[in-house]
Specification:
10 helices; alpha/beta
Length: about 325
């Protein structure tokens, strides 16, 4: 696989500084039951990196000593981590909201038969990968049969109350472009999703989140193989909008990898660009307990233009509302 970091380090991206920390995003490991083309994590069934119990305990200690109000769980497939449920329970017992970034098909894996009931019982917000409402597009990006399983999983979530009026159970869907293009306007695409999924499958959801593909790891390597890397980077840079800088997720979020090391965002984590503080080369989650990060510089590189291009892009969808 082609390395993209050497092509991204030299940058003219504007400097950023942190605001109040609100979200702890936790990568519970790179093991996944899928291996999607656009995956910036390079996750897959053969990956063995999984967060262990000691690191989970350090995370819980951090939750006890910070003002974080949201725990954002990702992977891989976070549900495959053996400590997933204990971590969810600990966060909810502390009044902290939990997001599960679910690929949907994992709900049909061995041992996951009651996962939907568990998520609903703990009022976990589900953010589900659904790159299109058309079977051929989803299967092309994520593998044969993924669309059918995804529809079945969404029906299970709806049946458990997700996205139903008055349930309090939130279900958001995530769109990624098929290739080296920017996402279309989020509001218009959401309307298309809402109509097609309701009419064709009887499925409802709360919001659609549009995310730009990051030019790193598997997707970045594919761009290099196709000779599209430079043109995609130019697309991102030319579409940059300064007004998106105030809302980028790295200002109010830290990302923690499966070993417990801290990064400004999930994308920097995948490029192994650790959060930098007090000249220390790498920080563990146990090192930042009680540490004020407000005002600290964010580590930026050329890939950051993917978050500020056009309507903007973050783990919460478009920055422009």
């Amino acid at each position: 696989m082609h390395a993209t970091l050497p092509l991204l380090t030299e940058t003219d991206f504007p400097p950023l500084r942190r605001a109040q920390l609100e979200t702890l995003q936790l990568n519970l490991g790179y093991r996944c039951n899928q291996a999607c083309l656009h995956c910036h994590v390079n996750a897959g069934p053969k990956r063995t990196e999984v967060m262990n119990g000691d690191t989970v305990a350090a995370v819980i200690d951090f939750l006890d000593n910070s003002a974080v109000r949201t725990l954002d769980l990702t992977g891989g497939a976070p549900e495959l981590n053996p400590h997933f449920r204990a971590l969810v329970g600990a966060a909810r017992a502390r009044g902290i909201g939990v997001i599960d970034r679910c690929n949907l098909t994992v709900l049909f894996e061995d041992g996951q038969q009651d996962t939907v009931r568990f998520l609903a019982g703990h009022s976990v917000k589900v953010v589900a990968s659904m790159p299109c409402y058309l079977k051929e597009n989803v299967d092309a990006q994520r593998g044969n049969g993924v669309f059918g399983k995804s529809i079945a999983a969404l029906r299970l979530l709806n049946a458990a109350g997700y996205a139903r009026t008055g349930s309090g159970l939130e279900l958001d869907l995530v769109y990624n472009p098929q290739g080296a293009t920017l996402p279309p306007p989020q509001q218009a695409l959401e309307a298309d999703y809402r109509r097609r999924l309701a009419d064709d499958y009887g499925i409802v959801f709360n919001r659609l989140l549009t995310l730009a593909n990051m030019p790193i790891n598997r997707f970045g390597s594919t761009l290099l193989s196709r000779g599209e890397f430079d043109s995609y980077m130019e697309l991102l840079r030319s579409a940059h909008r300064d007004e998106n800088l105030d809302a980028v997720m790295c200002r109010t979020l830290i990302s923690v990898d499966w070993r417990g090391y801290v990064y400004d965002c999930d994308f920097n984590q995948m490029l192994d660009l650790p959060l930098q503080l007090d000249q220390r080369p790498r920080l563990h989650i146990s090192d930042v307990q009680g540490t004020a990060l407000n005002g600290c510089p964010v580590r930026v590189a050329q890939h950051c233009y993917a978050c500020t291009a056009g309507q903007g892009s973050s783990c919460g969808g478009a920055l422009e509302r």
